[in-house]
Specification:
The chain is α+β, with helices and mostly antiparallel strands. The chain is built from four helices and six strands; from the N terminus they run H-H-H-E-E-H-E-E-E-E. A hairpin with a 5-residue loop joins strand 5 (115-125) and strand 6.
């Protein structure tokens, strides 16, 4: 009787271990979910969701003239909270610029009537292997620039 009980316990323990065993790294969908949640937060002023996808030490940087304004997570959430209920009238999309197993750099664009807001996101895995936004750099472009629309390029002559 004791042997049957011992065998049953061992089988139960092995079954539980197999059920809850580590199955490897999470899929790419996890960072994509964070990026899509960021887009939804911006579009609908969802400060609660933004709070959950941003790292506690995250920041947003915005260039203003020749200075960069830095906003920490707390002030960013409070700012969005004060705008709760406001819906953005824009289209959005994103592109992953670079990725590794622990970090992703993505550009999220919000296209308004006459301007494009580019948000460059740094998304990293935290100590619990959860994807969190650690930094956002927000920049603006005009959709239509008067004058010459030719791209600016630089060329270096390496023959000398």
């Amino acid at each position: 009787m004791n042997k049957k009980f011992l065998v049953a316990c061992i089988i139960s323990l092995l079954s539980a271990t197999a059920t809850y065993a580590y199955t490897g790294p999470k899929s790419d969908g996890d960072f994509k979910t964070v990026i899509k949640d960021f887009m939804e937060c911006h579009m609908n002023s969802n400060y609660k969701k933004l709070n959950s996808i941003m790292d506690d030490n995250s920041s947003m940087k915005i260039p203003r003239g020749n200075k960069v304004i830095k906003q920490d997570k707390e002030s960013l959430i409070e700012s969005m909270k004060s705008n709760a209920g406001i819906q953005q009238n824009c289209e959005c999309n994103y592109e992953v610029l670079a990725k590794s197993d622990a970090m992703v750099i993505a550009r999220v664009d919000f296209s308004y009537h006459d301007t494009i807001q580019h948000n460059y996101l740094i998304v990293e895995k935290d100590d619990n292997a959860q994807w969190k936004i650690t930094q956002v750099c927000k920049m603006f472009d005009d959709n239509e620039v008067p004058g010459n629309n030719a791209p600016v390029t630089a060329k270096k002559d390496f023959t000398n």
